[in-house]
Design brief:
Layout (H helix, E strand, L loop, with lengths): L13 H10 L11 H62 L2 H5 L4
Length: 107
């Protein structure tokens, strides 16, 4: 993150801080917050951090869900292929050992 320099202006240091800014050749501009505004700024950043963490948790949960779903689908498809191969092998075995096939003179 980029460094932010905060200058707190009070009636006692106002003239001194303005003079420092001017001697550095920088324009004198003030962005002011009340004490309540500063507190709200901090709370807003805290809310943003919490929202980002919540979104990261949701994304992680979706990733986990889809990875597990794809794994389950792959395993189911592999099981179907294995079962189909076993059925096909059994059918071929039964066809070759059939009595009619053994007696068929045209084979």
């Amino acid at each position: 993150m980029r460094k932010i320099e905060w200058i707190l202006l009070t009636p006692e240091n106002f003239e001194e801080e303005v003079a420092k800014i001017q001697t550095n050749g920088r324009p004198v501009v003030f962005f002011a917050l009340t004490d309540q505004g500063y507190e709200n700024l901090g709370l807003n950043f805290s809310d943003i951090r919490a929202l980002v963490q919540q979104q990261q948790a949701i994304i992680g949960a979706y990733k986990n869900y889809y990875e597990n779903a794809n794994k389950a689908l792959d395993e189911a498809n592999q099981s179907i292929e294995n079962t189909s191969k076993e059925v096909s092998d059994q059918q071929q075995s039964q066809e070759s050992s059939s009595v009619l096939n053994k007696l068929n003179p045209f084979k």
